[in-house]
Each structure stands twice: as structure tokens, then as C-alpha cells.
Amino acid sequence: MNDLTVYDELYTIVCQGDLSNQLDARLKLLPHVDKALEHVYQRADQQVTLLIVAALHGHELVTRILLSHSSNVRNLVKITGTTYDSKGKRVLLVTALWCACDRGHYKLAQTLIDVGQACIDDSSRNPLLIDAINNERLDTVQFLIENDHVDINETTEYEYRKYNSLMFAAALGQTQIVAYLVEKGAKVDYLGGVHNGTALGCAALHGHLEVVKLLCSAGACPNIKNSHGETPMILAYKNGQFDVAEYLLDLTQNDLCIDELELIACSFIIPRGNNDNDPSPFVKMVNLMRKSFKMRETRYCPKIIMKPVMAYNFETECQTLKEFDKIQDDYDRLFIEALLIRERILLPKKFKGLCEPLLMFGEKLIEKGDYESCIRLWEHAFHLYQLMNHDTSLHRFVWIFCKMLATNVSISPQLFLQICRLTSEPSEKQNASHCIKNTVCLITIAAKIFDQNKLTKAERLSINEWISDICREKRTTPYGQTLLHLSVSEQTHLDINYRASEIRQILSFPNLVTTQLLLIHGSRWINCDAVDISNGDTALHLVSQSNKPEALSIVKLLLDAGAHIDCRNKHNKTPLDCAKTIEMKNLLQRQHASVSLKCLCACYIVEKHINYEFIWEKDTKLNTFIYLHGCIAKQNITSVDSKS
Fold first, then answer.
1. Which of 307, 313, 380, 523 is buried most, with the most CB atoms less than 10 Å from its CB?
2. How many Å apart are CA 370 and CA 350, to the nearest integer?
3. Are 158 and 121 in contact (CB under 8 A)?
4. How far apart are the C-alpha atoms of 347 and 354, rounded to whole Å?
5. Is 55 among the domain residues?
6. Beta strands in 254-409 (DSSP E)
7. What are phi and psi of 482, to 5 degrees?
8. How high is the pLDDT of residue 596?
């Protein structure tokens, strides 16, 4: 008789359950009994072992016989299979112990634990206690707890939330199981889960009012915050569970922080994607704000009002309920009220999310064509970022100015200059590439503003002075690129990545007018022969590689400003060597014909390895001049050789 025939015979005996003597005798005759016991049977779409079959049928004596014949019972009880649960659902990775509990065969389950040393949570599924709660099996929960097989508080789900048993039951709204767990000693204020919350928070989050009431009556504290600083009441309000929130508000009114209540009220009208046509969020805000004013009055707790700013139309927060009642039907004014409240509360905490609603509101102002209000609002947001020591950028302003230019909307010179002066703020004075590129973009926009007929002489002078101030600072990117490098490089155009399609149609690089402005107003500080770190390129090297029409005019401009045509980069190439178009090569060749004697001498000194560095003081103009005529390439070759 082959193994498969024997296995089938054993399977039939185990299913019947009343042939235990025959099973015992049959197993004793098998030469490889462990192999038979651990064999997984395929029956339709189920995979089961003999032990799992016995557990499903509740054959406790058969289970004992199977365990007695195993030389490794711990391994036997760990084997998992696939079957259907008591509700007819196909379940994967089940053990014999799980099957016994699912079918309510608790005497057999106890045998598996006592004799088979089955581990309660030895499965890739959730722990048995969590699984029983998930399936609303109070009987299994009672078996596990009353026989001391589990720790109520420490047993947690394996999934991402990591809820313990009470939190899990509360989140599912299983009032009966919650009541039982509390009766059996579950800690109602136990902190757990990935957000370090409580069972009350879980129930509030999911809107299970009866569970919330049960937990509160059992002594759960409604003021405990999770790792995000959210109380159960906040969780309820934020997730639209208003009946739960109102119940908790009545419980916590004496201990509740008024600021907390006001922030919840504001959260109704400034979340992302709020529907402006839906009045209900504003109604909810009004109701909560009225409660907050009454609480302030009861506690004699007046607001500390911040100074009015143009970004908020010089509005100030309402101090009294009477003042608030006057604006409760004005949705735009309520929105500003929410922004004012958030700034008062969140700015001292340096909460970065404070500015998100301002940025979103600005987008809506742009949709309405109210560009200036948006710019003032975003300028205010920029200053808030500075006050909170959070990094920010001017890219939004570059975009909105380009949008105005594209739609022929006049740009106020005063407002433009106000934004330009933000380049002097701490976050913008760093050498980050995006900061300096935004500055170059603003200079390019300035050139377009100069074309406006209404510009006064004083306004032109102010913008020119700003350009001079920027040039005086001699800013460079981490790659050593100057403002001049960026103004003549095609890469500057390609690097525009914020609203790129809209900005690129207005701003183009290389840019002749930007280069002119830099050379005119920064002539005392702009070095036409400055080299970058990456390739040792001068501005002339970069623009010579461009095939754009403006490139030829920019080359002439640079040469007229004193840029040296025979400077060599790290690859020992001159701008002529880098040129890609015939027109560019012809232009540079004509200029090469008139190379000065000074340049020829510099090239000769480098070529003949004449030691000039100790003749004159280091970093003198003459040393620098010689260096640009081939030393960069020689240094590069030396460094490459040393690395190899």
C-alpha cells in the first residue's frame, strides 16, 4: 500500500472521529509517522492536516492521539492550512488552534495548548484575541482571557495601527466586547498604537458613541492627547463625528483649552479641497466659535490680538461674541477670521502647516484675478516662514508675476520691489541654487516691467538699485555659478520646475536683457571671467554652446564688457572650442584674430610651466589672468591622475 492510500485512510478515520482505537493502531504501524501527521491534504480549495481536520470537527480524543504519536508536537501544531471559517469565509494560514476556537471547541483548544504546547499567537495572522474581536467572537475572547492565555493590554494587532485589544474593539464599535474587556481589567487609558492613542480616541475617531459613553463611565480620561496632540474630541470633530464630539465637549468643557476648541472650529473651513458652495462647514465653525466665546467670558480669558496686516485686509480678530455675530454670515470674513485665529495660536509653536491655508487661499484669489491680494497674502506667508525658521522660496512669486505678464496684467512696481527685497531675507541669502535662480528670474521680470509705460523715474531707479545691491553681494550657487553664469545658460531655462510651462513661456535663458542689466548695474562687482566649479566654465563658455538667437548678441555684450575669449576650462577648451553653431564659431574666430599680446604671454607662461605664482602675490589680478589661460585644465588633469 503506497503512502497516498495510507494518508487517505487516515484522513477518513480522523473525519469520522469515533474510530480512535483504529487510528492509534494504524499510526503505530507507520514507519514514518511524522511524515503522515505533517502531510497537507488538498481537498477542493482547502489545504488541511490531520490535526486541523480534528480541530474543525471537534474530535478532542483524536487530537490527543495525533499529538501522542508526534515526535515534534511544537512543529505539528504550527503547521498552517486553508479552510472555511464558521461564517463560510475562506481563510488562509490557519492553525489547528485557530480552527478549534473558530468552531467553539474550547476543550480541544485547551488540549492543543496543554498537550501540544500550541502558542496562542504563533501565526502570521493577527493574534487570536485580536482575530476573535475582529470576528465578534465574545466566546473566544472569554476563553482566552479567563484561562489566562493572553495579556489584555499588551496583545496588539500586527498591522500598521498596532492597536491593543481594547483599542481594536473600540475602533470597531463592539460595545459588548469592550464592556467585557473593561470588566476583566483592561486599562481604559492605556496608550498604544502607532500614534500613542487611547481606546477612547479610537472610538471617537470612528464615531461609536455608545462605546465612548461606556469608556467614559468606566473612567477613561477625555483629555489625553495622542502623539499628534489630538484629544478624542479633536479626533471626533476632525472626522465629522459630531454627536461624539458634542458629548465629549460637554464632559471636557471645564478642562478644555479654548485655543484647542478654536483650532477645531477653524479646521472646518480651511481643509484642503473645501467646497466653497457648501455652507455647512461655516455653520459648524460658527457654532463652535460661539461656544469658545462663552467659555472665554466664563473664564475671564480675553484674546491677545495681533497687529492688523494688509494681507488680511487689516482685519482683526473678533474680541466678543457680539462682534463675531456681525460676521457670521460673511463667509469670506469668516475665512479671514480662521486665518487670524490660526496665526495667533500656531505661530508661537512654529507649526509649519500654519501657512498651507494661506497658500491655498492665494490660489483661489488668482483664479478670481485678484493678483495683488494673492501677492500680499503670500508675502505674509513668506514672513511667517521666516519667523518660524522654516525654509521657503520665492518660486511662487516668480510664477505669479509671469502669469500676470502672460495675461497683460500690470505689475505694481512698488509691490514687485517689495517682493524683490525678500531676496535679502535669511533663507534667500543662502547659496542654494533655487534661491539664486529665483533672483535671476526676478531680474528678468524686472526687465519686462521696465517696458511698462507708467513706470516713473524714481521707480526705475529703485529697481536698478536693488539689482546693484544683489550684484554687490556676489552670490554663487553651490557649483560656483554666478548671476552672470545663470543669465547666459540654457540650463537655467531647463531647471525651471515650478509651474514650468507657464514660467518658461515668459522667461527664456540665455537672456540678453538680463545680462545687460547685470553688466550695467553690477559692473563694479560682476566678474565676466568667473569660473564655475563643475567644469571651470566662464559665462562665455556657457553661452557659446547655445543655438538660441540671443546667444550671439550676448557674446558680443560679454566681449565688450572685457570677457576674455581664450580662457580655458577644465577640459582645456576655449569658448570657441565649445561653440556648436557655425554662426557662433565664425563670430568667435573673428574675435580670436585680435587676441592681445597679454593673452599670448599668459598662454606661453602656462605652456612652458614657468613658475609665476611666487613672483607676484597670490590672488593678484595678474596671477588670476594667467590662471585662466590653461591652469584650470592642468589642475584637473593632475587631480584625475592622482585619483586613478
1. 380
2. 29
3. no
4. 7
5. yes
6. none
7. -90, 175
8. 63
Expressed in angstroms, the distance from the first to the final Cα of the chain is: 72
Q: DSSP character for 311?
A: G
Whether 168 and 157 have beta carbons less than 8 Å apart is answered as yes
Q: Which domain holds residue 60?
A: 1-125
Angle (nearest 5°) at CA 514 between 510 and 517 = 150
- C-alpha cell read off for 328: 457670521
Residue 336 domain-assigned? no
As a whole number of angstroms, the distance between CA 472 and CA 429 comes to 13
The CA–CA distances, whole Å, from 508 to 244, 444, 485, 489 equal: 57, 9, 14, 10
Which residue in 118, 152, 110 sits closest to 132, CA to CA? 152
**pLDDT value of position 632:** 59
- What are all long-range contacts of 377-382, with beta carbons under 8 Å and residues at least 24 apart? 377/311, 379/311, 379/418, 379/419, 379/422, 380/309, 380/310, 380/311, 380/312, 381/311, 381/355, 382/422, 382/425
Task: Give the cell for residue 295.
Answer: 467659555
Per residue in 303-326, pLDDT tens?
A: 888 899 999 999 999 999 999 999
CA atoms of 72 and 432, how far apart (whole Å): 65
CA gap 18, 253 in Å, rounded: 66
Helix (H, G, I), strand (E, B) or coil at 82: strand
C-alpha cell read off for 321:
461674541
Q: Domain of 70: which CATH number?
A: 1.25.40.20
Query: What's the pLDDT tens digit per position in 488-535?
Result: 999 999 999 999 999 999 999 999 999 999 999 998 999 998 989 888
Written as nine digits, the cell of 276 is 466653497
Number of domains in the chain: 1
590 alpha carbon, distance to own chain's centre: 55
Locus of grid cell 480541544:
108
Task: Tell whether 38 is covered by a domain.
Answer: yes
Q: Name, in order, each residue with C-beta under 8 angstroms of 607's C-beta and a sequence gap of 6 or more.
A: 630
Helix (H, G, I), strand (E, B) or coil at 37: helix
Residue 583, domain member (yes or no)? no
Closest Cα partner for 503 from 608, 394, 643, 610? Answer: 394
